Amino acid sequence: MKPTTSSSTHFLIYALILCLTSTIISGGNETDHEALLRIKSLITHDPYGALSSWNNSIHFCDWEHVYCGKRHKRVTYIELESNGVKGSLSPYVGNLSFLRMLSLGNNSFQGAIPQEIGRLSRLRIMFLKRNKFSGVIPANISGCFNLEKIDISNNELVGSIPKEISFLSNLTLLSLFNNKLTGGIPPFLGNLTSMELFSVKGNPFGGSIPHTLGHLKSLKEIYLGTCNLSGIIPDSLYNLSLLTDLSLAENRLTGSLHTAIGGMLPRLVFLQLRDNQLSGPLPSSISNCSRLTIFEVAVNKFSGKLKIDFSKLRDIYFISVSKNNLGSKEPDEMNFIDSLKNCTKLLKLDLLDCKFQGVIPWSIGNLSSQLNFLNLYGNQLHGNLPRSIGNLVGLETLSLRGVIPIGLGDCVSLLRLSLQGNLFQGNPFKALVYEFMPNGSLHDWLHLSESTSRLSLLQIMKIFMDIAYALDYIHNHSLPTLVHGDLKPSNVLLDDDMVAHVGDFGLARFLGTTSFQNNSTGIRGTIGYVAPEYGLGSEMSSGGDVYSFGILVLEGITGKNPTDDIFNEDFCLHKFASMALRDNTVTDIIDVNLINEYQEAKVKEIKEEANMKTIIEECVVSIVKIGVSCSMDSPTQRMDIENVVHELQDILNTLQNT
């Protein structure tokens, strides 16, 4: 039977549509191809060959760090994080019209963020953090109306936050911290009602905290530290009942805290208000913040009796109320110590210079056995220092003044003792010993153990977390800042519970003082772990510790010592790991013993339209990226230890939930 005229017409139309579709897709492919080559053309330094495959020998969808959609073969994801890339970002990035995720973090991109980025209407995630981008935030970023996450922190951006950013109704994360932004925190940000994380710390904004931030009912984390802010904490902020993290540190905020803060913000995990001019009492309602882990209100003008019932804060591990006016002159002003006995995770208790005048109760010996830092320096405490303090076997640092009881000899982990500022009496000091760590050092477990037991991935992650917490404390919470100077696996000791303790502060020094300085004119530290800038005569810095930590992480995850024979001046552990990241062969360099217990882990797809990997493999890659980021040659390119703690915690949570 002959085809009818109608069916023939339909066939021709269908063929024409196929032809046009093919032409459009082909044209789109060519557009993406050219855009990628244009991006590469503005890269002036590519030390690890991240873009070496970006040429005409293979299809661009097969290039390293480029991911395409399966249907149209258009670029949907560019991932160049932590590859040491230097150059500027080509305006041709705006031609990648199918792009959903752009991740260029921890490189050396410089110059302006191109205006053309506003063409990327499908873009959902833009990570440009830890680069050297300058200029202003493009106003036409509102053209990326599907954006969900923006992280352009740790750059050199200037100007103010553009009003157009408030049009991004899907935005859940806005991270602009550590730039040079001015013009205040704009009230229009209150329109971003989907926002869950807002971080602008470390910008010289000036002005006050806008009350409109109280409109962000989905907000869980807010970081406004070191923004030159003044005025009071607006009442509207206390209405953000989902808040877990609240940081307003290092500003000039005045006024008092809402008396019902604990009832209004019951989910708080992290409360950081240090270095302001806040006054009034510390509200007893903070007792209701049962999830609190960090409570930091040091260097303010808080006054009155400390009435917080800490017994409800069972997860808290860091308390700092130092340099406030909390002495009430009442006989029982130190009784809050009694309520701390239920805080079994407590690691740090800083009561420096609080104007306390009472007697330390015997119950101080009931504090957590994990407590490793206790500072009572600069008060006017009197009477006998209870012998029960010897129960605090985890103490590494104790700051007091006066005669020490014999019981202190039981504090077998004590590494640092300061005695100034109080009026204690009692029996003379008799003994001070160091604890034998039954599980030896991390070095032993990585290289010397002859037993069949090995560290699992979960165990090594917890050890990394312990070390990162220690560095975060001495770098960011110790007054003054302390630098270790010789971090390496043999200086990390493991107790009965495999909790890591950082020891040997023989090369340590306090920044800004002459204390603990090393008199040697040679390189400070241990070969393989010492930061390269020390070899050029640079002063000790927290960045040097971060470098050592990065090498330690890479050693822990690969099982390779940085001084192994395979490494030399041109090929080090950092480069070994960087090349594996570049070549997508990270799992080939990992110590197989680490992941044995996860060999049967269920494979889950975690990245749409990209190469599917197991959760465990993704975690391992993330750990190696942290190690590489921390051990960059340039101190300015290294991760901040606070970011390390957060990222390691995310990885640990993922592993524990697997």
Automatic annotation (TrEMBL):
It is a single-pass membrane protein; Single-pass type I membrane protein. InterPro entries: Kinase-like_dom_sf, Leu-rich_rpt, LRR_dom_sf, LRR_N_plant-typ, LRR_R13L4/SHOC2-like, Plant_LRR-RLKs, Prot_kinase_dom, Ser-Thr/Tyr_kinase_cat_dom. GO terms for molecular function: ATP binding; protein serine/threonine kinase activity; receptor serine/threonine kinase binding. Residues 1-27 form the signal peptide. Its main location: membrane. It is found in: Cell membrane; Membrane. The keyword RNA-binding does not apply. Its EC number is 2.7.11.1. PROSITE patterns: PROTEIN_KINASE_DOM (PS50011), PROTEIN_KINASE_ST (PS00108). SMART domains: S_TKc. One of its GO terms (cellular component) is plasma membrane. Keywords: ATP-binding, Cell membrane, Glycoprotein, Kinase, Leucine-rich repeat, Membrane, Nucleotide-binding, Phosphoprotein, Receptor, Repeat, Serine/threonine-protein kinase, Signal, Transferase, Transmembrane, Transmembrane helix. It catalyses: L-threonyl-[protein] + ATP = O-phospho-L-threonyl-[protein] + ADP + H(+); L-seryl-[protein] + ATP = O-phospho-L-seryl-[protein] + ADP + H(+). The keyword Cell membrane applies. Residues 302-652 form the Protein kinase domain. Belongs to the protein kinase superfamily. Ser/Thr protein kinase family. This is non-specific serine/threonine protein kinase.
